[in-house]
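Schema walkthrough. Field components (list of strings):
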Amino acid sequence: MATDTGREFDGSGLQAGLGLDDPRRLLRGFAGLVGFVVLWYLVSLTQPPIVLPSPVAVAAEFRGQFLSGTMPEALASSIRHWVPGTIAGTGLGVGAGVALAWSGLLDDVTAPLVRVLRPVPPLALIGFAIAWFGLNHAGAAFIIAVGGFWINFYASYGAVEEVSDDLIDVGRTLGVRGDLDMVRSVVLPASLPGILTGVRTGLGRCWMLVIAAEIFSVPGIGREILRASNNLRVDRAIAYILVLSLMYLLVDVAFRAVQRRVLAWQA
Amino acid sequence: MAGVNRGPASGDELGDDPAGVVVDAVGKTYDDGGTPVRALDDVSFAVESGEFVCVVGPSGCGKTTLFRIIAGLTEATDGEIRVAGSPVTGPTTDMGVVFQEYHLFPWLTVEENVGFGLERTDRSAAERERRVDEMLDLVGLTEFRDSYPKSLSGGMKQRVAIARSLAVDPELLLMDEPFGAVDAQTREMLQRELLDVWASTGKTALFVTHDVAEAVTLADRIVVMASEPGRIAEIVDVDVSRPRERGDPAFGEHVARVRDLIGARP
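Field assembly_structure (string):
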């Protein structure tokens, strides 16, 4: 495992991210999972499959969808708007949050605009997504980016506001001159823990927005879930929800490993 | 017997002193809408090149405000600070500044903290590295060079802060209660080390403290401040040869004299 994960994180970080470093916790988690599946199975015996399919049926459907190629194709499609949407939303959100928190002028100028735009849910922008980008990956990426933007914006803004004035003073006495140098050398590293927490929350939120973004028929996991639901194929809907969960888990574990590595100075 | 310098030196004769500091009629009024508060009033004294001067006073006498004004971090309402004849208009790397709470950069290792200021100079990478080695050696932290501040004790953190401020080779070392946050034993050790560093580097030192015994241990001259408004009560010469022992009667006399000056004023 350690050999192919690259330099960003090694096997031990990945193990820690999954909680594998503590066998007792792992065991408890496993027990909880098994308990849930057993309960699900027992309840499913009392219900028609259209209400609650058994875990066995869902597993079979998962396998069928996977082998037929429909599932990998849907996943690949979702990734094609999740990745650019998340990158754009995260990058712009962190950039805007840091800039506005650092610059009083920018903050004053943009404050009313931020207050007006903030309460707009990404889904309300679907009309704009279609008008500006069309029924395609770019349109879906736009919805995802809007959701990711705000989480990162507020996390970064808060993190920069909390940077201690004393560290700024120290930077000034050590020859840091100008906003760019100060932000790069002091403000960003000092606020990195808060910024990365925001990025991590944003990564999860962006996966959730994949479903919303595919409401207007862009192919992907979300559309498969909606289709399956419309056709009362609850087993298929659950199979695709599982894909979403697994992708989220994978991204989160990987990101936590990177986070631990980058913030090693906190440990 | 404690020598006494009545009235602050004008400092004009120190105008071109390469590392001299002149505090010239400095005043500071905080006015944020309510009743204006006069934190400092007509503070004047001079520090000669290579001299060790302590500023002592009761809490609330404006000594930290004075420290921040000298460092260029806070603007004075009246008067000015001159270092080597030039007015201080903002923070400058001619001064190495050490704060009470260390304020190390937690994301940088000891070595990187010490090298922080050097990266903004025109020294080559090899020179910077040599300078960092030198500084780590000076404060005895070579073996902790790769540690992060979090794993260091208070005394070690303050040594890193001192090394960091000295790395860019400032003329003046300016310190605000740097040993206020460490235990008594560590404080005495750090005081001895600071005197060694001062003696071996020949820097000018301006050291703010509320600890009278600390001031008498360290200083050539002590600027004694009084409060409301913060002002100079008196400037006391410390005519005790180094190393100074706390048991020495002359040491005790100076401590008593300074305490008296602080206590005698409202």
